[in-house]
Amino acid sequence: RRRLLLVSNSTLHGGGYLGHCQQHIKNFLGEQVKRVLFVPYALHDRDAYARTAREKFESLGYGLDSIHESCDPVEAVRKSEAIFIGGGNTFRLLKALYDNSLIQEIRKRVLEDGIPYMGSSAGTNVATISINTTNDMPIVYPPSLQALGLVPFNINPHYLDPDVKSTHMGETREERIRQYHEEPNTPPVLGLREGAMLLVEGDKAILQGVTGARLFLRGKKPTEHEPGTDFSFLLIDSNLQNL
């Protein structure tokens, strides 16, 4: 059974690191998980990032091992009870996953062995089909934009609605996603606002958190969705293009 907690952002205005979703994390990991394998590849200072994550997870009752401290990252994944990939630059993160031969290893642990996977921001981006809909700059060049493919659609974390009072004439997030869908055979994109997260358990996907999401399907008008929405239909890959 696939178990994923895909969070839009690590920090919500007015709160600390993962503060807005800490109860969701505890509900997700439960009491069976004792230690979490953290992947800090999206940020340059991995030591500092690991300290921040370790402090948070220990406060929730979980031990944390950072994969960058392991001499064998592949073996660390194979032995992990749960995986958490944090935010930062999505291109840097995906390149490091490829460089360390972790794409197939993580897929196997999550999709075949059923260990919990949590992603935040960039860690949510790489859980999807590709990183084509990330907001980040391509500061490094991964060998592919194809990601872990734990779900058969894409997510746009930190989704922003247009500000009707703004005089900024640049493209809105919605326009950029529409441009993505001008390309053939592009999958749905779920725009997760800050404070939103998607819980996937097997073939069920439910929107959680304090904010809503906007769903983009190729050739369709985007639709608005509130917390509690059942997005399980997005997990049925063969039917997506016919919605």
Automatic annotation (TrEMBL):
Enzyme Commission (EC) number: 3.4.13.21
Any one of the GO BP annotations: proteolysis
Location within or outside the cell: Cytoplasm
GO cellular component, one term: cytoplasm
Gene Ontology MF terms: dipeptidase activity; serine-type peptidase activity
Cited InterPro entries: Class_I_gatase-like (IPR029062), Peptidase_S51 (IPR005320)
Protein family: Belongs to the peptidase S51 family.
The name this protein goes by in its record: dipeptidase E
Organism: Ardeotis kori
Gene behind the chain: Aada
